[in-house]
Amino acid sequence: MIGVSGSELHQELLFAFGGGDRDIAVAVLDGPVDRTHDCFIGAPLTPLHTVVTQRSDEDAPSTAQGTHLASLIFGQPCRSVEGIAPLCRGVIAPIFRDSRLMCAQADLAYAMNRALDYDAQIILIGAGSFEQPWYPGPSLASAIARCNARNTLIVASADRQGCSTLLRRCGTLNLLPVAALDGAGQPLGGHDGDLNDIGIAAPGSSVSGATLEGRVVRRSHPNVAAALVTGAAALLLGVQRNAGLAPNPAAVAEALRMTATPQTSPAGSALPPAWTGRKSLEAAAAYLTGRYESAYASSLFEAWYRARAGATRSDHAAFRPRA
């Protein structure tokens, strides 16, 4: 079993590959995000009008879950929360609101189409309650067909509150379900074992992220693991661009699966292979580009800072110099 906390994985991936590429767009489909939080100052975020926001007379109120997930990806360097891919473009397409995490299939389809209109190459879908029955309606099937045609990668939590099973039944070609592990390597919150063959696991416990009213909180949830993997996938799309290759989300999903470490539970039951840290990121980059270097995932800024300060990657943001 692999014992790594989500906070350790988060810190390990900070500053990798310079924090991403502005030409890479990642959509977060969850609740509205509190973009007034200090971690988003300077972040290239685009909020979209969806069915959720259209139902409100005023701007839909921000949600703690949506804000937390977005901060793990887009939180800016040297702020209260640092994201894994702060230089990538963020597209915020709400599907939940307030504390009511319920989403109809038609609402999900509309948000996905809006994200595609803004050229999202990766779509992260948060966990909540999704409309039953668990077979695709025409609007969602059409949105998935459009994702398939665009080679879009869809990342979703593989727990019982996620929509991974529904998306799989829609025929999603580039679907990456993510299960969560606690600090001892045990499944966190349960997961859908039927998705083991196409999914991976990642640490999802005790990760600091933004929440409402400018606060920072620690959350443990499969959503957290999915957000961390989404940030890593965004970095890998940038790696392809820097290597002179066309960004290929399907190839990134394959690299994430192929470089994950097989594991089993103490009871002997199968678990998704685990993707746990910086070495996994370097291996995935090597898988995509055909070359491997020991410091391949380090940015020039990180290399300079580590050489000058002798610091580790887990140092708090307050002690990092501004870029």
Automatic annotation (TrEMBL):
<protein>
    <submittedName>
        <fullName>Subtilase family protein</fullName>
    </submittedName>
</protein>
<dbReference type="GO" id="GO:0004252">
    <property type="term" value="F:serine-type endopeptidase activity"/>
</dbReference>
<dbReference type="GO" id="GO:0006508">
    <property type="term" value="P:proteolysis"/>
</dbReference>
<feature type="domain" description="Peptidase S8/S53">
    <location>
        <begin position="22"/>
        <end position="263"/>
    </location>
</feature>
<dbReference type="InterPro" id="IPR000209">
    <property type="entry name" value="Peptidase_S8/S53_dom"/>
</dbReference>
<dbReference type="InterPro" id="IPR036852">
    <property type="entry name" value="Peptidase_S8/S53_dom_sf"/>
</dbReference>
<dbReference type="Pfam" id="PF00082">
    <property type="entry name" value="Peptidase_S8"/>
</dbReference>
